[in-house]
Structure formats: C-alpha cells, structure tokens
Amino acid sequence: MTLSDTKRIRLGILMIDAGLITRDELEECLRMARETGLPVGRILLLTGKTTESVLQAAVQAQSLLKDGLLDLKTAYKALRKVAKEGVLLDEALGSLDVAIEDVKVNKLGELLIAANFVSEEELKEALDGSSSTGLPFGRMLVLNGVLSETQLAATLNAQILVRDKKITKEQAVEGLKQARRRQIAIEVPLMEKGFYTVQTREVIRLGELLSLSGLVSESQILNAVETGLVSQKPLGQVLVELNLVSEETLKIALQLQELVESGTLKPMQASHVMVNVMETAISIPEAVSLLEKQMGGNTPDINLKDFLTSSNALSDEDIQSAFEISVNNNQILGRMLLTAGIIDEGTLQSAMRLVFLVKSNLLDMDKAHQAFEYSRDKETTIDEALHELKLIK
Q1: In angstroms, rounded to a whole number, what is the distance separating the alpha carbons of residues 119 and 117?
Q2: DSSP letter string, 95-147
Q3: Which of 77, 166, 190, 272 could form a disulfide with 161 if both were Cys (CB 3.0 to 4.6 A apart)?
Q4: CA–CA separation, 40 vs 268, rounded Å?
Q5: CA distance from start to end of the chain
Q6: Rounded to the nearest 5°, which phi and psi values hold at 16?
Q7: 12-49: per-residue pLDDT in tens?
Q8: Residue 366 to residue 372: CA distance in whole angstroms
Q9: What is the rounded distance in angstroms from the CA atom of residue 300 to the CA atom of residue 170?
Q10: Mean pLDDT throughout 69-94?
Q11: CA–CA separation, 354 vs 360, rounded Å?
Q12: What is the pLDDT of residues 187-201, one digit of tens each?
C-alpha cells in the first residue's frame, strides 16, 4: 500500500485489517447505517461489534495515518493492544516505543494554540471533556467559556482554508490574531495582506443556506463543520450522519447552491426556495416559479391537492389512500408531524431511534416505551435513558 493509499484508508478497512471486526460485520453495519441514517461507528457500538475505547482509538489512528505520523504496521499493532489490554492508543504506541507528541491534539487545536486563543491546559481540559461527553472539543471550549462562537467559527474557517491549500498555516495564524484584535471576520485581514481572494461571483455556503432556511441552527452547523474537519468528511455527509438533515434535503440544498453559483438565484432567494420546497413538497422549478410570481405580484391561493382534484386527476379516495401509505412511511409521517407542529424535532428523533433499536432486536416494545417516557419526563437523551434504566448493554 502506497503512502497516498495509507492517507486515504477508510475507518472500517483499518479495523478489519487490524483484526478488530470482520468484513461481514462491517457490511452488516453499513447496511444498517444506510437504512437508519445513523453513523457506521454508532451502529458498531449499538450492535456490540466494538467498544467505545476501541472505536475512538481507531479514529485517532486513522487521523495519524492521514497526517503521515504513523505507518500501517505500527497502527495495527497498537490497535490490537488497545483491544486486548484495554489501554489508550497513546499508551499502546508508547509501549511500542513510538514517540508521537500530542496524539490527541488535532489541527484545530494547533491553530488555536498558535494564535494564542487557548492555553495548553484549556485545550487539555476541553479534550478530556470531549472524550467524556462525545461533543466536539471546539464546542467544549465554547461551553467552558474559553472561546466565543465567533472565535470558534473564525478558526474553523481558517482550518478549512488551510486544508484547501488556499492559505498556509502561518498565514492562518496571523489572520486569526488580527481578526481577534480588531474584532473582524478572518477573511478581512487575509485579503488585506493578499493571502486570500474572495470569489467575485455570488455563492452561498451549504451551512449558510441550511441555517438561513431554519433547518439547522448555527451551533449545529459549527459542530458539524468541526466534526467534518476532524474526520475529513464533507459537511453534507456529516450533517446526514448526525441526522440533522436527510439525504433528500441535502440533495435539494446542493442543487440550490448550483443555482446561486450560476446566477439563477440570489442567496436569500435560494433560502426562500428551500423553505417552500421543504414545507410544501413541491419541486425546485415549481418553487422558483412561485418565487418569481410572488416577486411580481399576488399569487392565486391554490395547492397541489386543489389543482389535481379540480382537474379530475385525483379523487377523495386517492387522497385517503395516499394518506394511509404516508402514515406507514416513517420519514414521511415524521415530516408531516413536524410541519403540523404536532411534535418537536427532539421527540421525533427519539422515537425514530427507538424504532430502529426495536427493528434491530436490541430492544422490545415495552422497554422502548419505558425509555421513551423516561426520556421525556427527565428531559434526557435516549442514550442517557437507556443507560440510566440499564435497558441495553
């Protein structure tokens, strides 16, 4: 395997080659991930194929491989030690006489320290908090009062620019220091120094589009951006894996991005089209046409049902049949309930999660109902409810 191949090695393949899971187990979990929308790592944990410590070690080893700080042979040996002896990855590497400084500090941490945004002690505290809570460590720095949301966003933007080779790490650090001192966006000092040139054509970022459309909050976007940078996954993929948007929603957003880049829509117009598509289930061309009519004057108050029934293309029986089918489709029903304001996003996600666990024979219906009621009464997550009630290993 070449160095280039090593840097692109997938987590599942790494775990198979290290003897942590079998290929059949990975394929089973990949299938379940496609069906449920949950991350593969989460499926591996839920089905008992691996443990939290082993999975975390594999993710760290993958990052070290991508950075060229570790070779495959050593990674396999270290991961086997983690699985067999229950030690941390850095301890396993130490026993193999591998000296890798700051194994747990990723590129975001390096930028934060270099720009004097955080101290070594503050970073370590956030890393420890991230390990115990599962939250991205950038989010932990905000929760601990070390960083502001603006500073975290600026550093993440800088990391993206470095990753995409638009600026160097040194330029990023200088830009961050000036942005903090002058309380301005990091792009401003970068452009003033000639380090970075903004695209002249109008664009809208994926996170910005989803945020403007009210589909995902800004804090959720920041969390997903940080997770994507650490795991080296596109933002859209991370948002889907975190169940913040569906595959279909992502597809719509990407299409609208292209319309903005081509000059067909303005950024704010794209957000209005996104809302219309999501709320009324019409197509993008229909939503664009509707927007153009609204900009030109009043529009007739008519919906898809009215049009089809008035055209004799749809009967009341057809509508009832479609309704019965939609009720048995989890995704459609969930979207209907959210749109109608009958349940909130948290309740829907909790219910969907428990449906998955029951269908996977990891819980029976009685235990699922017990966990659901406990989660709502105590205002906890389903994971916390299952743990506190000891309903699942």
Answers
A1: 7
A2: HTT---TTTT--HHHHHHHHTTSS-HHHHHHHHHHHHHH---HHHHHHHTTSS
A3: 166
A4: 35
A5: 38
A6: -65, -50
A7: 888 898 999 998 888 888 877 766 666 677 778 778 88
A8: 10
A9: 57
A10: 86
A11: 10
A12: 777 877 777 665 545
Distance CA 267, CA 9 (A): 37
Residue indicated by tokens 């594999």: 58
Q: How far is the C-alpha of 376 from the C-alpha of 344, rounded, in Å?
A: 12
Q: Name the residue among 34, 24, 36, 11 with its Cα closest to residue 358.
A: 36
Amino acid at 78: A
> Contact, 50 vs 125, CB < 8 A?
no
232 conformational bin, left if phi > 0, alpha if psi -120 to 50, beta if neither: left
Output the six-digit token pair for 110.
Answer: 């390096």
112-124 b/e (C-beta count within 10 Å ≥ 16 → b)? bbebebbeeebbb
Q: What is the pLDDT of residues 227-265, one digit of tens each?
A: 777 676 788 888 888 888 888 889 999 999 888 887 788
Structure tokens at 258: 């292209």
State yes or no: pLDDT of 299 exceeds 50. Answer: no
For residues 311 and 386, give the distance between their C-alpha atoms in angstroms, rounded to a whole number.
52
Is residue 389 scored above 60 in pLDDT? yes
How many alpha carbons lie under 13 Å from residue 164 in its C-beta half-sphere?
Answer: 10
